[in-house]
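re: that complex we talked abt at group meeting.

here r the seqs, copy pasted straight from the sheet so there may be weird spacing, ignore it
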Amino acid sequence: MDRMTLSIDGQIVAAEKGVTVLEAALENGIYVPNLCYHSDLKPVGVCRLCIVEIKGRGLAPACMTPAEEGMVVKTETSDIRNIRRTAAELLILNHHADCLSCTKNTKCRLQEVANYLGIDEKRLKRLRTPQRNLAIDSSNPFFDRDMNRCILCGICIRTCDNINGAGAIDFVFRGYNTTVGTFQDKPLLESNCESCGECLVRCPVGALSPKTSQVPAREVKTVCPYCGCGCSIYLGVRGDKVVSSRGDAEGPANHGRLCVKGRFGIEFVNHAERLTSPLIRKDGQFVKASWDEALNLVATKLAGYKGDQFAAVSSAKCTNEDNYVFQKFARALMGTNNIDHCARL
Amino acid sequence: MTTEQIAAVLNRHKTHRGALISILEDIQAKHGFLPEDALRAVAKETGRSLVEIYGVATFYRGFSLKPRGKHIVSACLGTACHVRGAPSVVTELENQLRVKSGETTVDKEFTLETVNCLGACALGPIVVIDGRYFSNVSPAKVKKILEDASKGFDRVEKGADERVFPVVVRCPRCNHSLMDLKHKIDDHPSIRVTVSGGQQHGWLRLSSLYGSYNLESEFEVPLDAVLNFFCPHCHAELVGASNCVLCEAPMIPMIVRGGGIVQICSRHGCKGHMLDINGVNA
Amino acid sequence: MSFEAARQQATKEWKELQSGAVPLVYIGTATCGRSAGALRLLDAVRAELDKRKAAAQIVEVGCLGMCYAEPLVTVRKPNGTAVCYGNVTKDRAAEFVENCIVGDKPPADLVLGSIGEKSVPGVPDLFSIPALRPQVRRILRNCGSIDATNMNHYLAHGGYTGFARALQAGREKVIAELRDSGLRGRGGAGFPTWRKWQFCIDAKGDRKYIICNADEGDPGAFMNRSLLEGDPHVVLEGLLIAGFTIGASEGYIYCRAEYPLALERLRTAFGQMEKYGLLGDNILDSGFSFHVKIKEGAGAFVCGEETALIASIEGKRGMPRPRPPFPAVSGLWGKPTVINNVETLASVALILQNGAAWYAQAGTEKSRGTKTFALAGKVKCTGLIEVPFGIKLRDVVYGIGGGILNDKEFKAVQTGGPSGGCLPAAWLESPVDYESLAAAGSIVGSGGMVVMDEDNCMVDVARYFLDFTQKESCGECVPCRLGTKQMLDILKDITAGKGRPGDIELLLELAEGIKRGSLCGLGQTAPNPVLTTVKYFRSEYEAHIHEKKCPARVCKPLIHYRILTDKCKGCGLCLKNCPATAITGENKKIHVVDQSKCVKCGVCLEKCPRKFSAVECVPGAALQ
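got the structure back, here u go
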């Protein structure tokens, strides 16, 4: 692949052709404050934090500027510091900073920016604090939307449009009243939101936060059991309980993405009514049985049927190998092609 | 707004990319605001998401998502009007109407709006009510202006609550008046045009009362026949770009005195018409 | 009919109109005229003529620019010199028709001046009166003297010869002509027009677009409206030349919906152009095809910004995007696009009609040509003016403007609308051009010029502009969305008497961050009104913050009204009119304002007879 070199803060760094200045810097371990940038999405250059100075051109948002061979970039000047400080102070002022109770605490990108820039409480006090208290939309069963914490980076909107394609949310109104809204400002549940949660995982702050959230003690890499897509996931485990699920960015089928089932449908694992052993009906009542007992019973009953008397329906939740064996069993042993499969759920 | 009307609006803009704003403007012109069902129909037809349309509708000041009053009062808050005392005029309007700017009175008579600049800066403060401009407005003049507006400028009471008013129109091509002062219909000067339909050609006189469908013609026009309209002075065909939202026949535009365009459907018997006086629609 | 034949026909028609056997009466019925009652006057004049069985040819024309004297009527008697009359209100229609149209005894107070070479005894030449003498009317030359709905009038005045010349000369020659003329964009930024076009010509694209920006959103500016209402064809000729030169077959006119008459004039003009074969396919057999669409703005100031305007035409929220790429490379639907202001395009038509050398005669070295301004606010003669660049501000305010209304003290002139600044008396001697106004901290902008006097509070003016930009910010980028709101909140506090020490420095700091950090021109210039008012009128800010006084007596929480005991005659007028029943006092006895009830509406001051002048408005809140 074509590489190029450019100078960032006096360091000569190499980058792939086609990347932006911001990406070139981040790849080379040079932090440039940013909030509205996300590697999965087209940049928009609206948070104005990644503004850098490019020799011969002046100030430009690094996320929107294609890196060029021989470019000379400065990420810190007094001018840039002033712009960033103004933007960051205003954002913090307009953000409900209830950090300790926020699910994004310590992972919040606004905190990251604030730490980097160093925010002075005294300076904030000179500014006028807006008195705004917007209602939290908790209509969605899996996550809440708290617009008091929103920084209007638009990542959720771009995600909904370009990654999911649902188009449930967009910027509505304008100026200071601009907000991320739904059609007619209805609760999210009444919009065409599919609850995939892709916006939730990309939200740089705590504006979108899961209803239940536990930090796992360890993670297990596995495949989502729901459908035939075979999305790679990491299940978070605490003790012997599954507490979280996240997409595996390396997963060839999903590149980190998940749908509502894979992301939020993990509760069944710990559910009290979940079947964990076979049941056999005896005298009208289901009675716990061992696997051998159950399989013997099935084998005995199946022995009485052959050919078109028999049909096989298998599950998408099984692995390919399981399904292969199952169809082999139907064709070779039972002598039928009546085979189907629930690829959907 | 009926489904057919929305469909007609959408149809008119079908071939044009990026027509969303024009579509919304047309719907608002017809309806006074943007009803939810209309927005749903627009989304379906344009393939855009509902919320994107909502985002556009809430971005521009010109759109209203709520029904507006019978009379639209726009107070200019441009710089020139501001330095000449527009804020106190707005305060007085708010006090008189007992609404805040942007709101509609409880009786749905008035909607008070402020606008950034109407471009008549040298004569400020400017207030526009139902398309009529008032210059050098002071708080003391507000009450009288509102009273006059409430009665209706140039309006003639006809019947119990049917309010109509006469229009004075000109040819959009040659600018010549189309009014026939001598030949009256509904006790008002009539509008004279030349029409042709089939093999026939002759004059047609229309009532100048907006809302009256009375007319007289030189030859008998069969119901539902679509006529061609001509200016009796310059003989240019009176033809506009738009079609009737009710029946799809071409609309005939005429310039209204006072600024604006009235459009009538060219189909005999169709009641499709549109009046756009200085952007305020009736 | 060939173009030449059409031109000859039009010229003949115009000559016939001028040499008719009946008086020719021009009535200005543009929006400003209408606001002053021109249509009611028109009716009245017709009725009065009918009554007298007198014949006259009435022509509705655009605006001569002297808004202060609206309604304006010009009368040309057969074989006589035209005389322009001002303030011809409906009430004086009978008198006017009798003495100015039918008879020949014009009332002195209506006469403004004569138009033409032959002078009329006792009547000054119109273009030598103070309000017009310093002006150089090029772009506005037809406004107020031709019927904007009759294309023949435009053709008779050299119309479309510039376009015909462009067709013949070819695009390189057009670009060279524009370069030599020194024309810079009239929308505000002053970028050389030829260079913008050249970028678009050089850009690759199977389709190109030209957009005329008529989204004149600056409050206090109405140049584009007047021009489109008074002479739409000059703009459309410029649009045709631009389309031809950059290779666009499609053009858009993005016009504010708040300008219904301008939109109507444009639509009428399109029909006429089609009739003459100046619009559509294969124009004048040149092989050049061009179509125009009108897009009505739905009410968003930010759509005057090029990229936001494009988003709006594409049917989206009018949100600007970072540049580069510039629209000339990737604009409407991703295609190379040129966006020019109304006045720029009109200038292009004039340059092609008259040549670059003619154009460059007016103006300064770096700012060539003329510029129209909307002169409004507290001057005696408000209106639409056109002056050569380089004219002194004083000559505009005191010369053309006739000085301050009621002979009050000049305080500031605001140029460039919400993106510009307020300049104090010290700058009156400075020339009006791009560089000088920028040096003063303001901009030429699109051409709004609002004059303020001693009764205007500069902190209140700054608050007004921030209130405007804050509401009009698209809300996309952080510095503009939150910064303008923050500045507004501080200014609101200051004007409400809640200013804190250090607020001025805070405003300046925020202003710098917003100017440098914002994404588009709206945010980058939004702090200018604050920066200039702090720079030139800092003492007013200090009086508000430290002394809790509004020296100009505008900010209500920082003033109070009182009745002077030595002057009050107890007439009771103030008491009767007070809406808050805050005034007490018996007949013939001294009245008193109850400060706790007073809403500071000022009605008492207004109502107190001038001979008593017993009510006073005092800076600072009342001592309770």
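couple things i noticed - Residues 280 and 286 of chain A are 5 Å apart (CA to CA). The longest helix of chain A spans residues 78-93.
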